[in-house]
Specification:
homodimer; Rossmann fold; 10 helices; 15 strands; 25% strand; elongated; DNA-binding
Chain lengths: 253, 253
DNA sequence: TTGTAAACGTGCAAAAACGAGCATAAAAAT
DNA sequence: ATTTTTATGCTCGTTTTTGCACGTTTACAA
């Protein structure tokens, strides 16, 4: 029996029982405990399980969170932006939220506020689920692979039934000429739909997005009422954005 | 038996009974009282329970994790049921899923299988999000407070647009006379709707639900094709269920 | 309030598990 | 065929965990 074969069996046992015992594995696979320990070490290094004394437990099944990696970038700035945006959010507002890590920071800071949230991002909904203060409406739709956003005609139809006080958008690019943009058409479409249903449009983005243009265009700057970003934004760009009639809020850090 | 295994069983007992006795645990786990006391100390430090003289009670700060605590009750049985149900799930099937911890166990075991899942539970959707093998459709709707289920006319309308191969239901009670039942009307309504859209109905429930009747009735036993449960079910009850034309699958533990 | 029995905590010794190093055996490369 | 690499099992010293003993504290009832 080769190593990979053992790895497979160990993972199988782990999936079946949740907890494995070193002695049992040694007997089951007919190898020494030393080998089992080395195997468990390897598997732990791959993040497939968590070692304990005497065996191992299933790793907290956050196997592939494509968001965790992104969250690391500018996380300080995102947190500050989240707090600033949440602070300015009026109680009782009906808010439409796209997905995205910056929007998630705002949602986290909104905990406990009496608001209504309409969203097509299930991670936003999950975050608010334990809090009775917020009423949460999920649009429904098809879950985009490796994302947490719902898209398609179901999402569109549901969103069309709501009037929003504020559309809260996270974007990948914000530019004077080209306006708001993001990486995928589906996200751009959802963002544009939120804007069309909303009284006011707030954009949250760290300063690295300012001046950038991503492939999928959403809308011109003129449609945006407020941008919440961090103090790292270029002052000249900020002036031009304000000259375009956009309120720019700099989060305190 | 390793320490983590004891921890899990202690949490399970706690979730089942709400209060545990040190002597009972010592007898059940076949370790000394000193070890039990040390275990309880550890678990208290993790905030998973509250120590008392002679044992421990469930921690009351369940605001943050309304789900984790529930998961502990019969977690071994639920995992076994999840594996058994997932194994019997045909590739490519279109499955409708309610929420509930037992259904979540099945969904976790379905990782990597090529299936289509229609669900009104956002935690189910979150679990499947990283896996490209599954196509996930979320019904949308209003998020029930402190739960992860979407309800209301949006959920109904979306669900009505789908034909399901299998309705996968988690219930709180399954009884010969009264049929399937659950704790809230909203959940019962959702479950009944899944049933009406599905070719076949599978119910997953640990043996503690067998013979019980919860307040909100869903449907009679005759509408169910298959029950996946654990070997702890009363043999007489099992016979009567099978006599009623229901296939009963006992998960291997 | 006071007595009593059960439970608690601490110190200590035994047992189990761990990590590191080394020798052997198998596999791969030369 | 021989060398190099890799994998496995074993030993030994160290760390962690467990069980027991004993004095102290707590809960319950008279």
């Amino acid at each position: 029996m080769i190593k990979e074969e053992r790895f497979e069996l160990i993972r199988g046992e782990l999936a079946k029982k949740g907890i494995v015992d070193g002695d049992e594995l040694a007997a089951l696979l007919d190898v020494s405990r030393a080998t089992i320990r080395r195997d468990l070490d390897s598997l732990e290094e791959q993040g497939l399980l968590k070692r304990t004394h005497g065996g191992a437990t299933a790793a907290d099944s956050e196997d592939e969170l494509p968001f965790h990696s992104k969250l690391a970038a500018y996380s300080r700035e995102k947190r500050a932006i989240g707090n600033a945006a949440a602070e300015r959010m009026p109680s009782g507002a009906v808010i439409g939220c796209t997905g995205g890590t910056t929007v998630m920071s705002v949602v986290k800071a909104l905990k406990g506020k009496p608001i209504t949230v309409v969203t097509n991002a299930i991670n936003v909904a999950m975050e608010l689920a334990p809090w009775e203060s917020a009423q949460v409406i999920v649009t429904g739709g098809t879950l985009r692979a490796r994302s947490y956003e719902l898209v398609g005609h179901i999402a569109d139809r549901t969103l069309g039934e709501f009037h929003l006080d504020i559309a809260l958008l996270g974007v990948d690019g914000i530019d004077i000429e080209r306006g708001l943009s993001t990486y995928t058409i589906a996200e751009a479409h959802a963002a544009a739909h939120y804007m069309s249903q909303a009284e006011r449009v707030w954009v949250v983005a760290d300063h690295s997005k300012a001046g950038k243009v991503a492939p999928a265009l959403i809308a011109p700057i003129s449609k945006v009422h407020c941008l919440v970003t961090d103090p790292g934004i270029d002052p000249g760009l900020r002036s031009r954005l304000e000259a375009a009639g956009l309120e720019v809020v700099l989060a305190e850090m």
